[in-house]
Amino acid sequence: MFIEPDLYKMIMELSIIPTVDLICINTSNQLLLMKRNNKPLKDVYYFPWWRRNKLESLEDALVRKWKEELMIDIDLSRIHYLESYDDIFPDSIFDNVPLHCFTVSYVYFLQDDELAHIHLDSQHSDLKLFDLDDPSLHEMVKIRIRDILAKNIIK
Q1: Which H, E and C letters describe 50-68, residue by residue?
Q2: What pLDDT band is residue 150 in, cutting at 50, 70 and 90?
Q3: Rounded to two decimals, what is the model's pTM?
Q4: Which of 27, 74, 85, 102 is the most buried (most CB within 10 A)?
């Protein structure tokens, strides 16, 4: 669902944006992150996250956006709910407009053959696997890893 930029800017100035993210872990317990081309987090390796459409389930949003932006179909049987987060960014795609997202996070167990089929869209310039204890990870990524380990989603 496309929202005209001026309207989306107004929504972003006044509201919390509902989003969903998918934290991908491969068979070696490494985290798949993509380098963002846009604010917020421009040039930062982060997991993909997306604004949900009205009347769209969380799972439908995940399936839709992975297909649209990364060109692969995900297997919903390998998705595990993690947690909900308030993600607050001092910037956004609009100048001088901070972004506040209410993000529902899921963990996805990525099979080795799926990684080879991911094609990045214009919002990402690179993808890379990271060890879970990599000190260069963004603080929000580290928080989610902490929660994944605390909930024993991976060992």
Answers
A1: EECCCCCCHHHHHHHHHHH
A2: very high
A3: 0.91
A4: 74
- Which DSSP helix (H) or strand (E) runs through 146? helix 139-150
Count other Cβ atoms within 10 Å, centred on residue 88: 12
For the chain, report the end-to-end CA distance as a whole number of angstroms: 38
CB 66 within 8 A of CB 22: yes
pLDDT in tens, 110-121: 988 888 888 888
Give the span between the Cα atoms of 141 and 23, in whole angstroms.
Answer: 9
Q: Among residues 41, 49, 46, 85, which one has the least CA distance to residue 66? A: 49
Phi, psi of 141 (to 5 degrees): -65, -45
* Superfamily classification of domain 5-150: Nucleoside Triphosphate Pyrophosphohydrolase (3.90.79.10)
CB 9 within 8 A of CB 94: yes
